[in-house]
Amino acid sequence: MMVADAARGFAETSLLISADTDMRPALQAVRMVVPRQRLYIGLPPGNTQPSGQLLSVGDLGHFFIRESILRSVQLPSEVHDPRSGPTYRRPDKWR
Predict the structure, then answer these.
(1) What is the mean pLDDT of each run of 10 residues along the chain (95 residues)?
(2) Four-point Cα dihedral 33, 39, 43, 48, nearest 10
(3) Structural domain tally of the chain?
(4) pTM (2 decimals)?
């Protein structure tokens, strides 16, 4: 969708939250379709630097997402849906 949004002129800036190098083709496609598009990658916790493969796209900003920030913006452990009835529980590994 990042490529489609750039091609349709829906965005001046694209942000990819990932450190996965298999996302490089999408970044390259945005760069090819809209050469001046601002591109950024947000690197999830555990990443110490962006990969050379992603940076090779050129003119790519990046920042690191701290785990403490992710923890501070999580929903409560349980959320009840008053319309349909079920209660949803956050997986233990996200605590």
Answers:
(1) 94 94 96 95 93 94 93 88 91 79
(2) 110
(3) 1
(4) 0.77
